[in-house]
Design a protein that fits this description.
mainly alpha; 14 helices; 79% helix; 0% strand
Length: 297
């Protein structure tokens, strides 16, 4: 069953990243690549500053009191940048889609290095327990294995989509929408399976983890503020884009790691879904506030 879940998550993430690659147009990306400083700055912040924020919160006065699944969910989401679903929200709220795409691509590539590098710090720096004995221990073989996993399910499909968009743009146009629909359907099925398997203790879990939910909300808000700060000095319209792309983490990658290393942490998948829900609930009013700020600025 564990293998089936892992395969389902991997396929969902692969198709999602492939759809992201198909949706990237080379000309608009080239325009941004000519001035890459903002995208690089935000991608670095998303890959390094957000994990540091997670460590600080988990080692703060409130962090020691939250449960093991909430702690592990916060840590995993802090480690996993580049959420393809952020692209849809950026477009919906009038952000810069091309900038968001370049940040997503850059963060996905950086994850090849950042996740294996930070994995050695994971159990101790985030004070996470319950991982398998062969889990994230920071050895060279494990770091290599993590890099292969990230490359296989995130970077490879992204590059395949980009390549297909470049050499066969008409085919990419035909595939993009149905592929994204399939990926979204698989994601909904995955969420439904997790909720179904945890429905018996969902309300009890939430009731017992209100302090963890509050800390998660603080982490999401901190991510939004960091993303906005990273765009300081740029056009006002870029602030909403960078804050959203920084705050929305990659639950597919986090769930893949759970299937591999964290099955012993009871309720961890549900905690990850609660983090995603909190991100959506907090980011919507934030984006509306950002749009008002841009109009008055």
């Amino acid at each position: 069953m564990n293998f089936a879940i892992r395969l389902f998550v991997a396929v969902t993430l692969f198709l999602t990243m492939l759809g992201l690659g198909l949706g990237l147009h080379s000309q608009s990306l080239r325009d941004w690549i000519k001035q890459p400083s903002l995208a690089l700055r935000v991608a670095l912040g998303s890959s390094l500053l957000i994990p540091l924020l997670g460590m600080a919160l988990l080692h703060g006065p409130w962090g020691s009191a939250i449960s093991s699944p909430m702690r592990a969910a916060m840590a995993l989401m802090a480690l996993c940048p580049s959420a393809p679903l952020a692209m849809r929200k950026v477009r919906k709220y009038g952000g810069d889609h091309d900038l968001a795409a370049l940040i997503q691509v850059t963060a996905a590539l950086m994850a090849l290095v950042s996740i294996p590098s930070l994995s050695g710090l994971f159990p101790h720096a985030f004070a996470v327990s319950g991982w398998h004995s062969d889990g994230l221990q920071g050895s060279v073989p494990m770091a290599r294995d993590l890099a292969v996993q990230v490359g296989r399910v995130q970077v490879l499909p992204l590059l395949l989509g980009l390549r297909l968009r470049h050499v066969r743009p008409a085919l990419a146009d035909r595939l993009e929408r149905p592929l994204n629909r399939i990926a979204n359907l698989l994601l909904l099925i995955l969420v439904g399976l997790i909720l179904f398997s945890t429905s018996r203790f969902l309300l009890r879990f939430i009731g017992h983890n209100l302090d963890g939910l509050l800390l998660m909300a603080l982490q999401v808000l901190g991510c939004l503020l960091i993303g906005r700060w990273l765009a300081a000095g740029e056009q006002r319209s870029h602030g909403a884009t960078t804050s959203l792309v920084t705050a929305m983490r990659n639950p597919g990658l986090a769930l893949l790691f759970v299937s591999r290393f964290g099955d012993e942490v009871h309720g961890l998948r549900l905690a990850i879904l609660l983090y995603v829900l909190l991100t959506a609930l907090i980011s919507v009013p934030w984006l509306r506030f950002s749009r008002r700020l841009e109009r008055t600025g």
